[in-house]
Design brief:
The complex is a heterodimer.
Chain A (H helix, E strand, L loop, with lengths): L4 H10 L7 H4 L8 H18 L3 E6 L2 E6 L4 H8 L8 H13 L2 E2 H8 L4 H9 L3 E6 L7 E5 L1 H6 L29 H14 L6
Antiparallel strand pairs in A: 1-2, 3-5, 4-5
Helix pairs in contact in A: 1-3, 5-7
Chain B lengths: L16 H11 L9 H17 L6 H18 L15 H22 L16 H4 L11 H15 L14 H15 L1 E3 L10 H16 L3 E4 L8 E4 L5 H4 L2
Antiparallel strand pairs in B: 1-3, 2-3
Helix pairs in contact in B: 2-3, 7-8
Classes of the chains: A alpha+beta, B mainly alpha.
Amino acid sequence: MAKSLKLILEALLFSSDKPLTVKDFHPCLPDAELSDIKSALKVLEHDYEVLDRSFTLKEVAEGYQFRSRSEYGSYILRLLQTTPNRLSRPATETLAIIAYKQPVLRHEIERLRGVDVGGILKTLLEKDLINIMGRKELPGRPLIYGTTKRFLEVFDLKDISSLPKLKEIKDFGAEEYEPSKTSSDNGLDKEIHETDSEGGAAD
Amino acid sequence: MTDNTEYRVKLEIFEGPLDLLLHLIRKNEVDIFDIPISLITDQYLQYLDMMKALNINVAGDFLLMASTLVHIKSRMLLPEQGEDKEEEEDPRTEITRPLLEYLRLKEVAGELSERDMLDRDVFKRHLYGDYISQFEGEEVQLDVNLFQLMDAFKRIVEQRLPDATLIYVADTMTIKDKIAFIIERLRQETTIFFTDLFNESRTLSEFIVTFLALLELVHIGMIRVFQPGPDKDIRLMAHFMDNEENDNG
């Protein structure tokens, strides 16, 4: 083979501004086996780690992406003449609820934060950090929110299950905030009924 | 300029009733598992009054929490009924549980924001870069929360106008004027202390106008507010110097 698979993948990653998944490579390399692509990516990731450059190949948002190391951030900001990407504390809290409790309804988020989150949801939607996953089959058909791939990309997460595990605060309210797995749906339904009886399920 | 007396600060209160409760619990240094409900309820209601006096739109959430607190307070006063005391839940659980959930949430959010964040700590390759447009419509960063600001304001009023009552009289100084005044000072000094801001204020209405001007400036992102530590003097910093050309359009 004249050109190594590893270097082709490197060229594709170099020329892309979004994380590339194994599936993204496939149309460019129809003859390559998915498993070969996967292992070549692992080798490439390791290569850059060993090289100890100012950037690395990171596994992020279910794909791979070249990104700078954090210690060079301040220089890059000067080059780009911009302020760092920021998310206010209330927006981060709201995002955290959605990340850990998705699929989640607005009034559930509001129950936890104790305050209206309409404006914040709009901001998060605009920033493409969350999206609307559908509507719950409930009176008023409320919207269901979840996080996006962009969320994973921004917060340096391989996938949603690599969210940091939660520490417990003195065993209190321990049933909340498990990263969403199959069980989360039952929990959601239960809470919906509770809130329904209070007539809180509007919009 | 008479219409300026009708000027209302549309300050978005990101802080909710739970933030206020946590603020009070920290301030009084009380145990979250053993909240002195009478004390906290009284203080909570004082804050609501103050927010109303300052024309800050008090959201329904705050009133709901107020009624919950009063309800808990009344239940605490009732003599315990029946034999099965151990079965009976502490009425305060009704607020302790959401508070703890909220604390945990804050912790999680803190961990999230400490990660290597794209376009803050780490950067990807940028092919068709227009970073500047990407950050427009950015949210206001508030390093001091509303309640800390209100505390500081209350202290100043109490120190300098001990007998003040909250009656608003249309005054010569409008919020617009005061905003221009604060900006001018920050242009000269870059950072000023919160307390110094009120040096030229003589009447309560002037104090309030100054305070509302400050809130508005924070809200539109012209200044940033810092507090080095609890009970330390709050400092204001100009946030318009470096991007003035862009913002003046």
